[in-house]
Amino acid sequence: MKTQPDKPQERYEDRNALLEKALIEEYLHEKGSSMEALRSLPAEQAEKLMTEASQYASLKMEEVSARAHLVQELHDDAASLKK
Fold first, then answer.
1. Which of 19, 32, 37, 55 is least enclosed, having the fewest CB within 10 Å?
2. CA 82 to CA 80: how far, in whole Å?
3. How far apart are CA 83 and CA 71, in angstroms?
């Protein structure tokens, strides 16, 4: 039995991990591959593809974060005008 609720930070980390995994899979799919297909590739090729996919996911996650901060700033600015 769980006596303490999950920490909010843990839930956010899980969301980020899920998003990162989805973005990596999206990249691999666009390249005609998949996580399963990587296992059958030569190690060098699989590593190169995963490096590219990880970089793609990192950039996309930064983009999402930047947009979220912009929306928050706009929301905060709009809230201050209502006062």
1. 32
2. 5
3. 19
pLDDT digits (tens, 9 = 90+) for 59-79: 999 999 999 999 988 888 777
**pTM to 2 decimal places:** 0.71
Is there a domain that residue 1 lies in? no
Classify residue 70: in a domain, yes or no.
yes
| Token digits of residue 47 | 């590593």
Which run of H or of E encompasses 9?
A: helix 8-30
In order, the DSSP letters of 15-69 are HHHHHHHHHHHHHHHHTT--HHHHTTS-HHHHHHHHHHHHHHHHHHHHHHHHHHH
Residues near 16 by beta carbon (within 8 Å), at least 6 away in sequence: 61
Instruction: Return the structure tokens found at 27.
Output: 């990249």
